[in-house]
Amino acid sequence: MKLAIMTAAYAAVFAAAMALLYGTAKQGTPTAGKGRVLRITLMSVCAVMWAFPLAGALIPDGPLCWFFQRWGNVFLGFLLYYSGALLLIRLCLALPCALYRKRHGGRSLPRQVHAWLLAVLAVFSLGVNLLGYAAAHDVKVTRYELSVRELGIDRPMRLVLIADLHIGVNSTPGMYEDMVRLINEQEADLVLVAGDIVTSSFGAMGDPERWADVLGGIRSHFGTYVVYGNHDVNEPLLGGFTYVGAENAHRDPAMPGFLEDCGWKLLQDETATVPELGGLCIAGRRDLSRPGDGVKSREDLSVLLAEIDPSAPILLLQHEPAELEALDALGVDLAVGGHTHDGQIFPGNVITRMLAEQSCGMKQWGDCWSVVTSGVGYFGPPIRVGTVSEIAVIDIR
Fold first, then answer.
1. C-beta separation of 38 from 21 below 8 A
2. Which residues, 6 or more positions from 342, have their beta carbon under 8 angstroms from its beta carbon?
3. What is the pLDDT of residues 266-305, one digit of tens each?
4. DSSP code of 320?
5. Is the Cβ–Cβ distance between 332 and 313 less than 8 Å?
6. What is the mean pLDDT of the chain?
7. Residue 68 and which of 93, 99, 291, 323 are 20 to 30 A apart at CA?
């Protein structure tokens, strides 16, 4: 039932976008001859683009599915700005066009105006996507500083936080090799991985051994700790949304072994102590919405921390930055996470910054500090517009 509803919603968006495009194309081309051929060609190309994401969602996991997903993500990035900008401009021009028709005896704007609009928007969307692709693959270093006094820690340390790698159909190993190089340049005490290593399909990464070689190159003094995110399960996606319930969101059996091959220490509602860092306790939580492995809900944080000495420095590693106001009362000194991508693509970044509990950056919640990274990878279209791919370096001095 949920799949049927999502498919109907997607079809409605598709139909509306195609109707908008057809209306503009009809006004911008001659009724017959070359104009008709141009309209049919334009509509056919856009229809194929809209069909790819749907095919990628409905075809079972495998090479054919991943082919449609890979190009469907690319096409969605183009259609977002092409159709979205066209809608915005048509709305803005509705009143001027009505006044023009009234003043000119019912005649519409010259045909060339509509033709140029379609051509310019195609170039605009292509340009935004090319720039967005370059931005998404240019990993930056974002730095934060905290004092040992604020966190109750008895020695300086350097942490590197990464999240949302989203290795999948649109991933390129070179980008993650750059990430590993940047991490190693920091000479971190700890590296923290806040989930979403893959994008809802372990098999879509293609060659796990190749990826384990890349990610296994991360170096730190006292290890790399990781938790799962909501996409570290095998589940179908349509337009970025799944139609499978949390109780049916299961982890690929090969996932734990893959993380071992990377040399990462997995925490699933578990804690670990790092004696070399003044007894720092790392509490790693399952994901809030997709705990995985058939688990419907994660462990309550108060239970997870019940046996921890409250005077010890506590670092909370979780995927989604949630329940932040409650962390101070539970004795958490520093919480780190990802999940938001900081909106990833404009205007998503504006919306996320308005609505999310903490979209990105560093913020204090009582005596607890929280750092949320915009992540390294991308979800859906392989672009970033108005946000950056980053590793976050947290210096505690």
1. no
2. 349, 352, 353, 359, 360, 374, 375, 387, 388
3. 999 999 999 999 999 999 999 998 888 777 788 899 999 9
4. S
5. no
6. 93
7. 291
Query: Is the separation of the CB atoms in 286 and 320 below 8 Å?
Result: no
Q: Both tokens of residue 99? A: 């006044």
pLDDT value of residue 42: 94
The two structure tokens encoding residue 303: 């239970």
In the chain, how long is the greatest CA-to-CA distance?
83
User: What is the DSSP code (8-state) at residue 323?
Assistant: S
Joined together, the tokens standing for residue 274 give: 């790092």
Tokens of 182: 């940047």
Identify the residue whose tokens are 């409250």.
310
**Two structure tokens written together for 378:** 């991308």
Collect all residues with Cβ–Cβ distance below 8 Å to 225 and sequence separation of at least 6.
190, 191, 192, 193, 264, 265, 267, 272, 282, 284, 317
Backbone angles phi and psi of 163, in degrees to 5? -160, 165
- Smallest CA-to-CA distance from 306 within 294, 314, 317 is with 314
Residue type for position 290: R
Burial class of 270 by CB neighbour count within 10 A (0 to 12, 13 to 18, 19+): middle
- pLDDT above 80 for 240: no
Residue 137: which H helix or E strand, with range? none
Query: What confidence score (pLDDT) does residue 1 get?
Result: 59
Taking the C-alpha atoms of residue 312 and residue 308, their distance in angstroms, rounded to an integer, is 8
DSSP classification of residue 198: B
Tokens 């006044």 found at: 99
The ranges of the chain annotated as CATH 3.60.21.10 are 140-396
243: left (phi over 0), alpha (psi -120 to 50) or beta: alpha
Strands lying side by side in the sheet with 224-227:
140-146, 390-396, 157-162, 190-194, 224-227, 264-266
Query: Percent of the chain at pLDDT above 90?
Result: 76
Question: What's at 97, amino acid-wise?
Answer: C
Residue 248 has pLDDT above 90, yes or no: no
**CATH classification of 140-396, choosing from 1.20.1050.10, 3.40.50.150, 3.60.21.10, 3.40.50.2300?**
3.60.21.10
Q: What is the DSSP letter of 272?
A: E
pLDDT tens per residue across span 59-105? 998 999 999 999 999 999 999 999 999 999 999 988 887 887 788 77
- Whole-model pTM: value is 0.94
CA 168 to chain CA centroid, Å, is 12
Give me the phi and psi of 317, to 5 degrees please: -110, 115
Write the single-letter amino acid at 365.
W
- pLDDT at 309 > cutoff 80: yes
